[in-house]
Write a sequence for this structure.
């Protein structure tokens, strides 16, 4: 039966090439946009270089002091003191890595300016983030404690600073007029990895700023790594208990917020939530509303075209009805035909997405951010296709099934 | 004539309903895109209000050992003198972090005779700031030595318009930050588009850096001479490292930050236009197909009209005006929604932006519908009455 429907669907597609083109254009184009967007978010949220342990990590990126009396809000990244003094005391996490958010420094090589983003880290950071070392190795706890001026640089920084030099380990790099001995070179990563991006990684003990300052706010963040994914809630509970016991030590500010969030949570909190609410449900609602609105226009278009095409086939429908086909069979047939059409559009859409993603990766709009179509994206695309096919097929099919046999036959 | 067309449309209300909703949705999409473009375009046409060429910004981290105000003042006066001594530096000014294109914001409130306004951009600057940026003064004067320990404030022309209308602003006593703190307006400057070329300046005021400010100030703006090149920049960086010890310094060119600030606006805008463009092509093809099909369905009717003497052009005119009438219905409905934006003052954007966008989108939809119905209309005109009636 299905084989028959398939044959009919192909025959119909061939009949009016212009309409087929419009339908396929609409479906494949819509799908392309949705799939490229999904690929983008997938890249942002799922584990990727160098943060492969994202599923069992929580990130502390900000500390906010709030005065509920005056309505004042003072937000910034966390201080080293806060992370060292309170967060490192936690028992559940397997490892805790501390890092500073990158800041820019200038260097001048042969009168050419090189801008690099430097980042201070501790030793655990290198065990949590799995950087790919092209040469050399990270600095050790011993080197940090000794305050050695050593650094790990990124591949692009090596290229900018040293040109085509083959090996740079052991050479010195100057940033802000201080020289650091290079002990490792890591593969580049995209800037969207805000917690991990840097061109020059340095031990926190060589920081020019006073990282020992007592206070909650500074330029640092931390990643808490649980032993397993199942341990994440436990780790979160322990963190929250610890946090609730910290006094603000301030007359004006009476509330302290420092969230340990997953990647998805920190994104939704930033965009749709606030300190009290993560905003995941709001994000889902708004994003699905947006996708629905975006799908509305092509869907109405498709419904319009579908109706036109069915009315064209009224004689065929009349004959089938006259020979006893029930409305249900006809609706079923038409929906199957439509789903075949949308899936065909889907296949074209996948090809278009591959082309778009290839162009995006080539274009260097966001350097080192290489999108790819993976299983998640494809499944999402397939679901959208089915949804699209059903949505645009149901109304025309219903209209068709209500055609009066006599009128349908006579129309010819 | 219209009555007749309405009757024809009403008779096919079921088919036309979908046509109508399609135009309605595309109208709203087009309206949104045009609002965005109009907003950006109108802002882009406004003068920048300052010169960003040859302006460099220096940011340094404040890791000074002391917090004593007097020694800090002496220290930074020294920095100023060393920099001023360089022939390549024409002007310099210490400033708060929110200088143009810096991604840093500081806002506060402003009151005058009980009328309150917020948020207002709050820039804290020095006497030479206007010279560094080449800002234009419209009224009164800029800060000078007279303002030491005086509560003087310079406002921009947007804030002046909003607060004082056409009255002169210089000399007025206002409340800045909060009602109780009284400040005197000494001048009005032209708007400075600090958020990039596509964004309005917003309401802003400028305050003078007071003696205690060096505890928190971390930025210097420099106006350099045309001779300043990379070699000079390298020398400058070395000098800064020597005089502000134990600090991380960064030098940026304002032209570069301006470019990146503008691309933050332009890239999403291009993506938006591309997506909307494809949606519209999609809709146009759909409309075209449906109209074409409708006409082939109405061959009998058209043949009859032709047989009793209607000319080809009047037949195609009828079909085009039918579609235009349908489009008008959608546009009326769509305009009702669109007009809510200026009426409710959504997003705090000037009503003129929405009105221009509305007119543009109406024109666009009409053009689109005419474009899509012209060819089917011509096809209809070519129908031969004898053939068409014979089919029936």
């Amino acid at each position: 039966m299905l084989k028959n429907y398939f044959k009919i669907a192909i025959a119909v597609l061939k009949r009016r090439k212009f309409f087929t083109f419009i339908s396929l254009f609409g479906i494949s184009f819509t799908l392309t946009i949705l799939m490229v967007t999904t690929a983008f978010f997938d890249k942002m949220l799922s584990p990727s270089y160098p943060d492969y342990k994202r599923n069992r990590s929580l990130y502390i990126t900000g500390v906010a002091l709030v005065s509920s009396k005056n309505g004042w809000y003072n937000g910034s990244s966390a201080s080293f003191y806060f992370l060292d003094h309170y967060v490192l005391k936690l028992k559940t996490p397997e490892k805790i890595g501390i890092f500073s958010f990158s800041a820019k420094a200038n260097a001048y090589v042969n009168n050419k300016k090189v801008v690099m983003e430097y980042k201070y880290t501790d030793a655990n950071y290198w065990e949590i983030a799995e950087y790919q070392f092209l040469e050399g190795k990270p600095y050790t706890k011993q080197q940090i404690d000794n305050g050695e001026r050593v650094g790990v640089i990124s591949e692009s920084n090596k290229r900018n600073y040293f040109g085509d030099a083959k090996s740079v380990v052991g050479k010195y790099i100057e940033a802000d007029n201080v020289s650091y001995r290079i002990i490792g070179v890591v593969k580049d990563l995209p800037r969207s990895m805000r917690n991990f991006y840097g061109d020059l990684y340095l031990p926190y003990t060589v920081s020019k700023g006073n990282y020992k300052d007592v206070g909650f706010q500074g330029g640092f963040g931390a990643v808490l790594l649980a032993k397993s994914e199942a341990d994440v809630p436990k780790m979160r509970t322990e963190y929250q208990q610890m946090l609730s016991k910290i006094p603000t030590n301030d007359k004006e500010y009476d509330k302290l917020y420092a969230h340990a969030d997953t990647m998805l949570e920190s994104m939704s909190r930033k965009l749709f939530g606030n300190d009290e609410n993560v905003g995941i449900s709001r994000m889902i609602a708004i994003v699905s509303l947006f996708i629905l609105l975006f799908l509305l226009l092509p869907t109405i278009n498709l419904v319009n075209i579908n109706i036109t095409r069915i009315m064209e086939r009224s004689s065929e429908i009349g004959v089938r009805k006259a020979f006893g086909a029930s409305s249900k069979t006809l609706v079923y047939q038409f929906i199957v035909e439509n789903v075949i059409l949308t899936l065909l559009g889907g296949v074209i859409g996948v090809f278009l997405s591959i082309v778009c993603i290839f162009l995006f990766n080539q274009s260097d709009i966001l350097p080192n951010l290489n999108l790819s179509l993976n299983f998640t994206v494809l499944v999402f695309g397939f679901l959208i296709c089915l949804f699209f096919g059903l949505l645009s097929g149901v109304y025309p099919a219903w209209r068709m099934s209500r055609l009066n046999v006599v009128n349908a036959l006579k129309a010819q | 004539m219209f009555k007749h067309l309405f009757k024809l449309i009403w008779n096919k209300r079921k088919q036309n309903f979908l046509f109508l909703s399609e135009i309605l949705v595309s109208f709203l999409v087009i309206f949104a895109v045009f609002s965005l473009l109009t907003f950006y375009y109108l802002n882009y046409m406004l003068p920048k209000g300052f010169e960003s060429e040859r302006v460099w910004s220096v940011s340094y981290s404040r890791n000074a050992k002391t917090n004593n105000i007097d020694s800090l003042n002496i220290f930074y006066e020294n920095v100023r003198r060393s920099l001023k001594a360089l022939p390549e530096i024409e002007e310099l000014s210490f400033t708060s972090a929110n200088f143009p294109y810096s991604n840093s914001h500081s806002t506060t409130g402003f009151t005058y005779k009980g009328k309150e306004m917020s948020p207002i951009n709050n820039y804290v600057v020095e006497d030479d700031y206007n010279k560094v940026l080449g800002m234009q003064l419209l009224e009164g004067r800029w800060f000078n030595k007279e303002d030491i320990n005086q509560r003087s404030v310079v406002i921009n022309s947007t804030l002046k318009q909003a607060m004082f209308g056409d009255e002169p602003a210089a000399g007025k006593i206002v409340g800045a930050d909060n009602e109780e703190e009284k400040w005197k307006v000494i001048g009005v400057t032209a708007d400075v588009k600090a958020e990039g070329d596509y964004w309005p300046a917003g309401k802003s005021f400028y305050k003078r850096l007071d003696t205690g400010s060096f505890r928190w100030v971390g930025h210097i703006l420099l106006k350099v001479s045309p001779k300043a090149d990379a070699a000079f920049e390298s020398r400058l960086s070395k000098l800064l490292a020597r005089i502000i010890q134990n600090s991380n310094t960064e030098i940026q060119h304002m032209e570069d930050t301006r470019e990146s600030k503008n691309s933050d606006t332009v890239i999403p805008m291009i993506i938006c236009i591309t997506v909307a463009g494809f949606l519209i092509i999609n809709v146009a093809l759909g409309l075209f197909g449906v109209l074409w099909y409708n006409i082939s369905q109405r061959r009998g009717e058209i043949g009859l009209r032709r047989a009793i003497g209607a000319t080809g052009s009047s037949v195609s005119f009828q079909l085009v005006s039918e579609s235009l009438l349908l489009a008008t219905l959608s546009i009326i409905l769509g305009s009702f929604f669109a007009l809510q934006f200026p009426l409710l003052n959504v997003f705090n954007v000037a009503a003129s932006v929405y009105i221009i966008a509305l007119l543009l989108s109406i024109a666009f939809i009409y053009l689109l519908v005419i474009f899509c119905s012209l060819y089917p209309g011509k096809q209809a005109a070519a129908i031969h009455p004898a053939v068409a009636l014979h089919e029936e």
